[in-house]
């Protein structure tokens, strides 16, 4: 059977189309062109159909090598290698130092209403008018700066082995102990009974009023005490007014001291002078008594002995002292409880022998 198809050619006479057959060689070429167009240049639809017709294992074997080759090509890129190394270093640093990346409440600086009130009170206490908006911003930034520097100092460990910081923290613990030792209001009978047991704490010290005559070692050298004894023999039994005419040396402070306590005289003249003075009999010249300045002859006008005031007169003072003693007792118990959790280790040195209290020694 002949597959050659005729070619229609229009007729010049107008009586219809005249059919003319194509030459065999041209017809064969056209058939080959159609076959190439149909089979040699596959369309996307054809490829999709062919791939879907393959078994799954064959399709995987076909695509896997291509994917691996592409991955190897990507791994050879320097930029990708740099990114992977950087990511690995970042992950390792984050794992080893998680505190650096911790975003919690410690990284927040909260300015409270109390902070604002305190800043305003400090500002107004200096006699200034209320702060303006710009001044408020400056005050808040100063507060923030202080907090930032404080936290960064703690992070750097600047509070470690600092004597001033240790003392301040210990002081704050004492204050905390005082706040925690809130006591119940004592009853009047309880305060009175405590007063009877501790009367000595409220005793008024003895007081003395006296006039003195001074003999200076700077002027008299070793003869100051002898000159004082000679003067005492001259003025013995005479009124103090006439006795002041005796030859003494000028004194840099007072010649007469009225109603002075033992502590006051000990602070000015020395403990030895105060002790000897209160042992003398009033109403006559006595001495010589040595002080830190030299030698003195004294005429004691009066000595008021030690006495205890009635409870009703000093009840507020007794109550305040009772509260202070109870607070100290509470703080002591708190410290003993904290102290019991620690073990003191001393160096093996003879410089401080047996420094640990017996009750605190380690077994």
List the helices and strands and how they pair.
Layout: E1 6-10, E2 17-21, H1 24-39, H2 44-53, H3 56-75, H4 78-96, H5 113-125, H6 133-155, H7 163-180, H8 188-197, E3 203-204, E4 207-215, H9 217-220, H10 224-235, H11 240-243, E5 256-261, H12 262-269, H13 271-277, E6 285-290, E7 295-304, E8 307-308, H14 311-339
Antiparallel strand pairs: 1-2, 3-8, 4-5, 4-7, 6-7
Helix pairs in contact: 8-14, 12-13
- Would you give the CATH topology of the largest domain? Chitinase A, domain 3
- DSSP helix count? 14
Q: Which CATH architecture of the largest domain?
A: Roll
Q: Helix-strand pattern, N to C?
A: EEHHHHHHHHEEHHHEHHEEEH
Radius of gyration: 55 Å
Shape, per Cα inertia axes: elongated
Ranges where pLDDT stays below 50 over 5 or more residues in a row are 1-20, 36-42, 358-363
Mean pLDDT: 77
**Main β-sheet, spatial strand arrangement:** 5-4-7-6
The biggest beta sheet is recorded as: 4 strands, antiparallel
Q: What portion of residues belong to β-strands?
A: 5-15%
Q: Helix share of residues?
A: 40-55%
- The tally of beta strands, per DSSP, is 8
- Intertermini distance: 124 Å
Tally of individual domains: 4
CATH class bucket of the largest domain: Alpha Beta
Could you characterize what this model shows?
This protein has 14 helices and 8 strands. With 363 residues, the chain is α+β, with helices and mostly antiparallel strands. The protein folds into 4 domains: 33-102, no CATH class; 113-155; 184-204 and 309-363, no CATH class; 206-305, Roll (Chitinase A, domain 3), CATH 3.10.50. The strands form 3 sheets. Strands 5-4-7-6 form a 4-stranded antiparallel β-sheet. A two-stranded antiparallel sheet has the order 1-2. Strand 6 (285-290) and strand 7 (295-304) form a beta hairpin. The chain is elongated. The model is unreliable at 1-20, 36-42 and 358-363 (pLDDT under 50).
């Amino acid at each position: 059977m002949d597959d050659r198809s005729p070619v229609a050619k229009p007729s010049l006479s107008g009586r219809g189309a005249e059919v003319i057959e194509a030459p065999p060689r041209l017809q064969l070429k056209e058939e080959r062109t159609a076959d190439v167009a149909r089979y040699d240049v596959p369309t996307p639809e054809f490829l999709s159909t062919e791939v879907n017709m393959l078994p799954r294992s064959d399709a995987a074997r076909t695509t896997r090598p291509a994917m691996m080759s592409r991955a190897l090509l990507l791994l050879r890129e320097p930029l990708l290698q740099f990114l992977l190394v950087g990511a690995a270093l970042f992950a390792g640093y984050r794992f080893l130092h998680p505190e650096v990346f911790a975003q919690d409440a410690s990284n927040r600086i909260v300015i409270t209403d109390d902070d604002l009130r305190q800043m305003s009170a400090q500002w107004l206490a200096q006699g200034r008018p209320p702060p303006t908006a710009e001044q408020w911003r400056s005050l808040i930034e100063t507060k923030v700066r202080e907090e930032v520097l404080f936290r960064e100092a703690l992070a750097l460990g600047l509070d470690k082995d600092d004597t001033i910081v240790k003392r301040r923290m210990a002081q704050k613990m004492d204050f905390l102990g005082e706040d925690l030792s809130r006591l119940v209001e004592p009853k009047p009978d309880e305060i009175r009974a405590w007063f009877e047991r501790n009367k000595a704490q409220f005793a008024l010290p003895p007081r003395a009023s006296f006039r003195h005559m001074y003999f200076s070692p700077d002027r008299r050298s070793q003869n100051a005490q002898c000159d004082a004894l000679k003067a005492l023999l001259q003025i013995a039994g005479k009124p103090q007014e006439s006795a002041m005419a005796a030859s003494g040396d000028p004194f840099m402070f007072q010649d007469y001291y009225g109603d002075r306590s033992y502590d006051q005289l000990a602070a000015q003249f020395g403990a030895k002078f105060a002790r000897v003075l209160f042992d003398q009999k009033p109403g006559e010249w006595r001495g010589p008594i040595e002080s830190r300045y030299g030698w003195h002859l004294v005429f004691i006008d009066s000595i008021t002995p030690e006495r205890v005031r009635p409870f009703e007169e000093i009840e507020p003072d007794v109550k305040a002292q009772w509260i202070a003693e109870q607070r100290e007792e509470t703080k002591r118990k708190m410290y003993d409880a904290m102290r019991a959790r620690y073990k003191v280790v001393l160096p093996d040195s003879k410089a401080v022998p047996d420094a640990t209290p017996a009750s605190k020694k380690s077994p």
